[in-house]
Predict the 3D structure of the following.
Amino acid sequence: MSTTPSPSSAMNLFASTLDFFDHAAAYTRHAPGMLEQIRCCNAVHRINFPLRMDDGSIRVVEAYRAQHSHHRLPVKGGMRFSPDLTEDMAMALAMLMTFKCALVGVPFGGGKGGVRIDPRAHSEAELERVTRRYTADLVQKRFLSPSLDVPAPDYGTGEREMGWIVDTYKTLHPEDINHLACVTGKPLPLGGIPGRREATGLGVFIGVRECVNAEADMRQAGLEGGVEGKRIVIQGLGNVGSHAAQAFHEAGAKLVALAEIDGAIHNPEGLDYDAVVEYRRRKGTILGFPGACDLADPAEALELDCDVLVPAALQNQVHADNAPRVRARIIAEAANGPVTPEADAIFQQRGVVVIPDMYLNAGGVTVSYFEWLKNLNHVSFGRMTRRYEQNVYRSLFEALEQLHGDRDDGQALLPIGGRISSPPSPGAGEKELVLSALEETMVITSRQVHERKQADNLPDLRTAAMVLAIDKIAQTYEYMGIFP
Ligand code: NAD
């Protein structure tokens, strides 16, 4: 195993992911057989099935589901609808899920799948037929169930598709009392959880906030600490990018450019994100936004002058060709695999801080885990205890007031540590509980990654995150033993 990512010209996400793994694995002391077991993809299901189009014609579509690691079950990972999806890509994305879950302490193996179609080219009725047919096949082949494999939204899918999935599963298995837990990212009335929609984007924001408040990272990047005033470029305003943009905007960062599939908008003075959202709602595009200049090629946005570049669309966006021209000092990998190993090596040489995908976009799977638990518990978080907690809190507060007089300095009584904002107050609603647990997960994991990087003198945050994840997975295998 090499100690630096080997150069490879092919922009294959699977090869890149293996490259990153091998690079990090060389810093661990695990036996070669153990590393090989952690590295390999445990199972892949590939199917072709007919889709009846609205005009009556038949089109054959290809779909996949990769289960990278069975060291914990169920496996967990998104469902992607994209014309670029391949079996290799599903395997790579599943592998990233394995490390992501281990890193943030979510007890799942990694999975990923989807259908090789362009959702923009199909009607809602066609997408529903594809989703239901694909789901039925996965259920039948034991590639989808609350205990074995639990999908979630990804590129090209959202709550609507997750709703079709749970309904199909329930129709096939009405006896399964846990049927709601067969998929996460569902609409609220179908067993979803408040906060899941914004979880990944918010997690991205929290991860960047931790980075710009870490002295070592800011020394490396040559930037002042703090989010306020940081110049941000975001590529992709879908589920992840739009919620990240909102959080940066609200925290006082300057969104200098936003890129979508049909072009980008740029204003070095900063874009009013709320106004952009309203403009896009009316016009169906961000192009032509008043006061900004349009860039016909969205890839140009990646090279604009800024402090933080947030690729939140697809893999392989920053590669050997454009990386030398990228001017950001922090690359925040909101998408999965947006930076190739060649680009990563260039950034390392130039002291650019790369916040790795397996950490930065883990907010989605973290809140998916809470949704899965809620579905298995058949009760929402806080429902049984809210009133009791409120009463206890009120009595305690009144007793303290009698002892010390009024105290209202906004300080949390029990700070959890780091830069976590106040913990939720007793009697908090489900969304508050969920977002607070998300924040705690992102802050604590950031600290662990930084500490590991420093303790083992590792070259970058990606290697540190991967080493941490490998150690946790190896530990599970060691305690589990290897099945004879
Ligand atoms: P999405 O489909 O909601 O949004 C993607 C957006 O990117 C779309 O608006 C699309 O038009 C835009 N886009 C596509 N190509 C582009 C280009 N070349 N330039 C600019 N914009 C472009 O997808 P999403 O759920 O936001 O996922 C985005 C990325 O984040 C993917 O890599 C996904 O795997 C990853 N991710 C998503 C989640 C989640 O919870 N949805 C969780 C973890 C990781």
Remarks:
- The pocket of nicotinamide-adenine-dinucleotide is lined by residues 78, 153-156, 200, 235-241, 259-261, 298, 312-314, 334-336, 361, 364 (CB under 6 Å).
- The chain has two domains: 8-16+33-189, 193-462.
